[in-house]
C-alpha cells in the first residue's frame, strides 16, 4: 500500500530557514543527494525526481542562530524506495566522512544526521507493512541497533547517484510544548490517528494505517517556548490532503476547536498549539 498518496493525509514538503544558503545547498546536493529545481538569491527548492518539491531552504536577511530547548523541528524524514538505496547512501556518507547515527525501528531501518545548521534529518526505508506488529491498535516500534553488516550486502552501485526519483518525504517529527492539546489538534482537527505512544513523552500519528506520518515529543521540555520567527530551523511544512472537500472539512474542524486558518497567497495555513506552521495543500 502507498501510504504517501490519496486518500491518506501525509507530509508533502518541509520548509527550512538556514544561516547560509550556499553552504546548505552544497550539503543537500552533494551529501544528501537532492537536485535544485528552482533557485533565487535567498531561496532554493529541492527535488528528487526533478518535478516534485520535497524541501525548500531559505536564508532570511535577519536570520538568528538556532535556539535550543524550543518547539519546532526534531527531524524530517526522507523515505527511500528500496533497501539497496539506504545501503548505497550509507556507503556514500561513510566515504564522505559524514558522521551519522542509526536505528532499527522494526517497521523501518533508519540513519540520522544533521545539516550544517543543526536541522535534524532521518533517511530511512520501510519494512513491508505486512510485517508490522499491531497490538490493541498501536504499532510496535523499537530503537534497536541497525545491522550494518546485513544492510551493506544490498549495495548495488559503486558510484553514488543521489536520491532516487521515487523518494518522498516520509514523515516529520516535531518538538512540542505539551501533548494533550497537541493530540486534540492533530486528531480532532486534522484527522490523524494515534498509532503509538512513547510513555508520556511522545506520540506517533498517521492516516491509513502507516506507522507514522508525524511524530510529536516533549523532549525539549514540557512548556518549551516557541523559537523566534527569525531563528534558524523549521519555517513550515505542508500536509497533502485528498481533495478540496477534505481540506474544507479539515478547516471546519480546526475552526470548531478555535484554531485559526488563514489564507496567505492562495495557501491555507494553520498553527499547532506549539506554533509549528502547517500548510494545508491538495
UniProtKB/TrEMBL annotation:
UniProt xrefs under Pfam families: Glyoxalase
* Gene3D superfamilies, per the entry: 2,3-Dihydroxybiphenyl 1,2-Dioxygenase, domain 1 (3.10.180.10)
* Source domain of life: Bacteria
Residues of the VOC domain: 10-126, 168-282
Record keywords: Metal-binding
- Its protein name is VOC family protein
Organism from which the protein derives: Metabacillus rhizolycopersici
**Which taxonomic lineage is given here?**
Bacteria, Bacillati, Bacillota, Bacilli, Bacillales
Amino acid at each position: 500500500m502507498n501510504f504517501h498518496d490519496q486518500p491518506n493525509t501525509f507530509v508533502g514538503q518541509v520548509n527550512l530557514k538556514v544561516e547560509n544558503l550556499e553552504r546548505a545547498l552544497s550539503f543537500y546536493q552533494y551529501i544528501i543527494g537532492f537536485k535544485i529545481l528552482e533557485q533565487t538569491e535567498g531561496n532554493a527548492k529541492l527535488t528528487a525526481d526533478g518535478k516534485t518539491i520535497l524541501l525548500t531552504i531559505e536564508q532570511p536577511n535577519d536570520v538568528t542562530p538556532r535556539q535550543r530547548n524550543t518547539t519546532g523541528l526534531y527531524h524530517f524524514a526522507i523515505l527511500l524506495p528500496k533497501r539497496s538505496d539506504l545501503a548505497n547512501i550509507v556507503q556514500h556518507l561513510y566515504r564522505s566522512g559524514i558522521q551519522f547515527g542509526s536505528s532499527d525501528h522494526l517497521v523501518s531501518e533508519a540513519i540520522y544526521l544533521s545539516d550544517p545548521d543543526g536541522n535534524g534529518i532521518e533517511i530511512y526505508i520501510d519494512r513491508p507493512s505486512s510485517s508490522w506488529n499491531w497490538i490493541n491498535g498501536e504499532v510496535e516500534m523499537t530503537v534497536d541497533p541497525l545491522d550494518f553488516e546485513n544492510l551493506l550486502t544490498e549495495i548495488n552501485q559503486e558510484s553514488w547517484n543521489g536520491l532516487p526519483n521515487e523518494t518522498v518525504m516520509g514523515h516529520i517529527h516535531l518538538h512540542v510544548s505539551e501533548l494533550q492539546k497537541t493530540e486534540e489538534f492533530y486528531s480532532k482537527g486534522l484527522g490523524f490517528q494515534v498509532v503509538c505512544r512513547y510513555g508520556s513523552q511522545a506520540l506517533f500519528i498517521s492516516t491509513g494505517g502507516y506507522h507514522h506520518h508525524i511524530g510529536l515529543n516533549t523532549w525539549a521540555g514540557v512548556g518549551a517556548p516557541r523559537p523566534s520567527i527569525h531563528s534558524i530551523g523549521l519555517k513550515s511544512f505542508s500536509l497533502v490532503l485528498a481533495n478540496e472537500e477534505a481540506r474544507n472539512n479539515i478547516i471546519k474542524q480546526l475552526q470548531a476547536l478555535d484554531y485559526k486558518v488563514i489564507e496567505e497567497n492562495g495557501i491555507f495555513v494553520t498553527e499547532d498549539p506549539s506554533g509549528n506552521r502547517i500548510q494545508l495543500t491538495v
